[in-house]
Amino acid sequence: PFGIGAGPLPTTGFIAAALNRGFDIVTLKTVRTAAFPINPYPHVRPVSMQGNLDASTETPVMVATHYSQPLAVANSLGIPSLKPAVWQTYFRESLALPKRGQALFASFQGTVHGKGRDEFVRDHVRGLKLILQTGVQIIEINLSCPNEGTETLACFDADITEQIVRAVRAAHPAVKLIIKLAYFSDHKLLKHIVSQVGPLLDGISAINTIPTPVVDTAGKPVFPGRRKAGISGAPIKWAGLEMTQLLAKYRQQLGLDYKIIGLGGVLNSQDFHDYRQAGADFVMSVTGTMWNPGLAAEIKQSLQF
Fold this sequence. Notes:
The chain is of the alpha/beta class. Helices cover 34% and strands 19% of the residues. The chain is built from nine helices and 13 strands.
């Protein structure tokens, strides 16, 4: 039960390569209802960190001169998307590739367009319709990333999260629906959201990167026009495990049956086993898979008795 989360698989070719490498759950890169530009260069940089990232502070993280282990990375791409006519083709082509025991996920990001909350909800309904037209039936709604240059995450807004899930479920009752959440330091808010939307979901995925200020040696932002970038890799594993444990606890307490997809800092086979032990039904990796295309094979080897 291991695969690649949304991000590093932008075309059918990448999906085919991942499946052939043994990543059995693959996610085509996040798409939108219209073309959306990538952020200005640079997009990915190594950062200098030892130990866990403190998600409760605004303390800047220093950029590093090279990538090293344990791997810590900052990224700021802006969730770009090709136009639907292009990404629908990728979905249709990719859907024929999974073999028995493998699955293709879609990832969707709503776009505000500056037109208000109601339009934001409708954009999700339209987006899932476009994906379902391709034949893909398992769809993750990404509520865990900044949208249109803001630092606000939709998943921290309980009302808009519930509106989106209810609207999508009403419009597309048969879809296998997953939402992706960020790290919640507010456990009461997380439990409230799970209680409101959990009964309508097939799965909850967590976490994404943790937004953090990233600076150079002079204290200036590394990513022009973006004070924060998403930190991934070893420093955020603790947060992903904590969210997995909380989602498992709330699932039991509330009598729900959604699946838990755990990710964040999965860089080796031990990380995979740690997530499974924490309660994850499935485990995914993004940064770890980009640095180690043999990661799925290593995990499968560790499962052999």
